[in-house]
Amino acid sequence: MKKAFFITGTDTGVGKTYVACELIRDYVVQGHKVVGMKPIAAGCELVDGEWVNEDVLKLTQASNVKAPHELINPYSFKAPIAPHIAAEQAGVKIEIAVIKQAFDKLAAMADIVIVEGAGGFLVPLNLRQSMADLAIALDIPVILVVGMKLGCINHALLTAEAIKARQLDLHGWIANQIEPGMAVYDANIAAVTQKMGSNCMANYPYSL
């Protein structure tokens, strides 16, 4: 069984890492060799003399395939800012070909690769390319994480439209409640499901 998914979101902070880790754990329980990949990470803390990104750490801990850090996270920047700006400040150019090579090596090591994007679907990587171009280059099904809050229907449908416009396979979407006590929560899920025309794969309630 060889499989991979690209995890994108309606925005930053909507729970992409949480969802990616849950997917990894689910596949691990099923007996598969699974590895998480975070091609681009912005925002690191100094831990025991090393710069560490929390998302990358969580993905690594959830995975049951041990891979070199440079494959799991080809690009890492200290500042928690937009990737293309972080790269520019660091004097680095983010190259999709480098990420694709790392992905191919991970795919050879594991049954399933869960790739987590950075920010939203159209976040720039450099002057010409965005996260969408990375998804196209990897050519794997996309799972959309929707941060359930007021305004999420518009964000979800715009993102789904952008994914489908690039002839990518929108495998499904996942509802992640990021605010407590959202009004008419179930009605929002129903609206996104109906209007997007895509399966709601999971519904994660709000948790601290």
Tell me the strand percentage band: 15-25%
Q: Please state how the strands of the largest beta sheet are arranged side by side.
A: 2-7-1-8-9-10
CATH class: Alpha Beta
Name the structural class.
alpha/beta
Following the backbone from N to C, one meets helices and strands in this order, namely EHEEEEHHEHHEHEHEHE
Largest sheet: 6 strands, parallel
> Which value, in Å, is the CA radius of gyration?
16 Å
Low-confidence stretches: none
Global morphology: globular
Fill in the CATH topology: Rossmann fold
Let me know the number of strands: 10
Structural summary, described in words:
This protein is α/β, with parallel strands linked by helices and 208 residues long. The strands form three sheets. A six-stranded parallel beta sheet has the order 2-7-1-8-9-10, with helices on both faces. It has a two-stranded parallel ribbon with strand order 3-6. It has a two-stranded antiparallel sheet with strand order 4-5. It contains eight helices and ten strands. It starts with a strand and ends with a strand. α5 packs across α6 (131-138). The longest helix is centred in the first third of the chain and has 14 residues, at 16-29. The chain has one domain (3-204): P-loop containing nucleotide triphosphate hydrolases (Rossmann fold), CATH 3.40.50.300.
